[in-house]
User: Fold this.
Amino acid sequence: MALKGLDIFKLTPKTNCKDCGNPTCMAFSMKVAQGAISADKCPHMSPEALAKLSEATEPPMKTIDVGGHKLGGETVLLRHEKTFVNRNVFSVKLRADMTDEEIDSVLEELKAVDYERINERMYAECVCVECGEDKARAAEVIEKARSSGRVLIVKTRDAELAASAKAALILGADASNWEAMNGAAKTAGSVLGVSGASLAELHDTVEKLEAAGNKNLVLDLGTGDAFKRAVQIRRAALKDGDRTFGYPSVVDTAAIAPGDPVLQSQLAALFVCRYGSVIIMDRMSYAQALPLFGLRQNIFTDPQKPMKVAPGIYPINGAGPDSPCAVTVDFALTYFVVSGELERSGMPVNLCITDAGGYSVLTSWAAGKFSANSISAFFAEQDIENKLTTRTLILPGKVAVLKGEVENKLPGWNVLVAPNEAVQLVKYMRELKI
Amino acid sequence: MSFEPKLRAYTAPVFSVEVGSGERKLTLGGESVQPLCFFDKPDQPAPLIGVEVSDVGFEAEGLPELAAFYEGADTLAARAVKAASLPGASFVCLHFEGADPAGANKSVEDCVAEAKEAVAACPLPVVIAGCKNIEKDTALFTALAEALTGENLLFLSAREEDYKAMGAAVALAYGHKLGAESAVDINLAKQLNVVLTQLGVPSASIVMNLGAAAAGYGFEYVASTLDRVRSAALEQQDGMLRMPVVTIVSAEAWSVKEALVSEEDMPEWGPREQRGIQMEAVTAAACLASGSDAVILRHPVSVEKTAAFIAALM
Assistant:
């Protein structure tokens, strides 16, 4: 729990020496309590007091690095309260008892489903290997997984195998084997996943691991009541100040819903929205990836910052230099709705996305970020008059008022005005006579 | 010290709204826990699943499973009966998209005749959805509400533009339930509930239709609006936001590119039907995670899986 100013004051030398730049030790303590300055600004604090303070001012949930991906570090239960910080990662799953053909098919799909969407790479970051009893076969499959170049997760209760796998994350510590697994994780430099028959048992095991010096952990939510555990762990960490549960989570949807890709996706969606950090699934097909990666991208945007697409010319339905231009703003939602409707129309069109600060059409127009000037500047920047032969430009219906000004700024262009709503674009485009 | 989880149940539950009559009845809302947190308090009501059937039928191209399911069901009534037979379905949503003046432009009389037949045949409670054209929906809903007096149907939806006519006719004159439809925004949603209540519509006759988006298409607004509405209802006991929430997932999920593009155009994406099912099922799960009390779905597989999803969390 966070310390109050008075608690901190008790740890200071109480000499009012001003070496920290504050008039009194009490003033210094109040500032530390608010997080305005750090406790080590006082040169006379004892190391024990500093250690106690740094522990008390630690964030409620640790940020754990798994193979270069930051997980956890969250401060709120719901994204609108501030923002979610670190997006979850997805993992596909290999089992050592799968045939080579099955394994290759999962890995090939993993490699194929890798694309870009609104300036973000969309792919499953990890491969998880469930090792089973046959250690020789497990080692083979681990090497296959490693060769994919993705972050390696190994699920085993065998400390020797865990140590030799050199995985980013080892899943397999519990109340019975935590000491051996802790040794393996330290040897291999891996993050350790901890599970428990109950949350109380999990809590005890984490306490023991922390006492043994390992604070590089993730919490395995198990299969029976994973959602309940996810919620109770996160509430305890963020609302009740229980640092023992202040770790990211891992959930294996393939173990909860074996062989059911739709249900696995639904569970994955639930854990994207609510407190999953590493989400394991059997595979990641395009059909699963398209909604899940999109959902993750949405949920982990900062509510204080609009989601933007890169300005530029986006040809739709095989548009060429002679296809008309339609111009709109770089607010991601606007882009998706407008490009979706233009695609549905089946008509070739060059969609021009201008830099409007990531706001919607009316908002950016009101803020002066979407105007005849910004449109003509965009045309000059992109060298559209030389790149394209068309001289037809379609404006959004909501800024019909810009028509005259745009005509003045872009002589020689036939400026048209689209309907007010994107849904009306299909009909409009099909009936457009140029 | 042994870990003891703190349970979180609230004293003021989400309002209960009853839809249907006689044997065909359901209750929307009524929970006093956060979304899907059934572990916080025993005997909490589960969210419900509605199946959407269209008066003009669904285009079958690229959707062999959907087409096979409705094969031979040539009328709205026959489709409604089929939809009601799905395990996991709690109600059927009759979607009158054919009434749209920009589309088939079916007459109000034709729609009323089809609706009466469907309501008579359907063994589950019925929800009515319009064509989104304000004038036509007002005329259609008024006529339907009168023709089906006593059935206690849920009409989706009343909007800022037509809430007066809808509230007066559908809810006050003919005693049906009304969905208040706003853009994805907590303030607009609340405002609509306020004006409907001022009109005299009891809060037990209002459900909220807060809008939706497919996963990836600005779903953060949907998630955070649902989160905020539910927090306002449970934590702040805001009487103007305690109505249950119904989300039409089907129309959003099946109209994005991921669910529309044919396999010929995007061979690497794989069969269209699987993409549509995944988009619908994932969006439904995400809506339920943030607080929808009912989701309306189209594909039989999405219905089946969403029912299994809810059951797995009970």
